[in-house]
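ESCALATION

Customer reports they have been waiting on this structure for their group meeting. Please prioritize. Original submission:
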Amino acid sequence: MMARALDDGRATLLRIRLGTISLLALGVVGTFAGAGGTIALERLGLLASQEPAQTVAKIPADALVIPSPEMPAGVDRFTYVSLDAVELGWTEPKVEIVAVAPLKTLSEDIPTTWSTETRVERVIPLLEPPRLAIRPPQASAWFSPRASAPLRDYRLARRLAEISPGASRRLTARFAAAKAAWPPAEVAFVTIKDEKVVELHARPEGGTWKLIHRYPVLAASGKPGPKLVQGDKQVPEGVYGVSYLNPASRYHVSLRVNYPNAFDRQMAAKDGRKDLGGDIMFHGKAVSAGCIAVGDEAAEELFVLAANVGLPNVKIVIAPTDFRRHGLPSANPSHPEWVPGLYTQVASAMTPFKPPPPSPSLLSSFFGN
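Update from on-call: job pushed to the front of the queue and completed.
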């Protein structure tokens, strides 16, 4: 009886385990069957998806309002308004506009010794003397093609403002006396060494040249003949222009001659000469070493004229003598062999400028001739 009861218990336990396994198997099969059926029904269109459709709305970028954080304490160039969500109410934030102070640039004071100056402007000083544009008025072998760009120089403007009123009054009177149009379009400074004179010629646009005035040269060094090397104290000879105006010259004001020009350099290369010198000026005062000193008032008038007509419209002719009256000189054996050719060019450049009438002699005045 005991053995039979044990066998019956084991059989019952086995049936229970088999039933549990069968139920688990049926659950798994049912799950896969249900999922497969659902997918099949959806593909056939018989079963609608229960998930709500999601719609993505595109919002324009300019409609977005992005609150800006407040600037930290101590910033005074801009002010931001609080953009709290309750205050905004989906509207654009209000921004208070605060004026911004202009940026300051670094500058240095430029010392000046002019008595009429009442205040010192803070400007950036130039690293070189003031320059204005220089272009050759004609294509000539002796004219230097080098040019410098114009620079804005407040020193030049101040100097012109100081000397222009007086110089312009004197110039207006000289042009009226010569019955010439004022202001001129072009001017020429014809310098004659042996007469120690600078002739001012001028003409209006499209007009003819007219002699305006003869300025005496108060000081000049050297002798007849061109300038050859640095330190020979010679005033150059040839046809030149003005390369720049110097308002802060030690000799009041000055106009720099563009020596050496192209012709000077060509002849120097032919002769094997170097270090031709430079810094040849028309300036004020009465002292010179290779320059042409005409006194302060005359220098002011030439300076103002050159500034008014523009440096490309200023021509300078420097001759050892008046070729218009005396003709070309005979060759000088102490001069380089190319000097006669130079004098031919200078004489040709002097042709448009008529010399003044000769002064009457004492006898002709006495006899009325």
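Sent to customer with the following note: The chain has two domains: 65-104, 123-350.
Escalation resolved.
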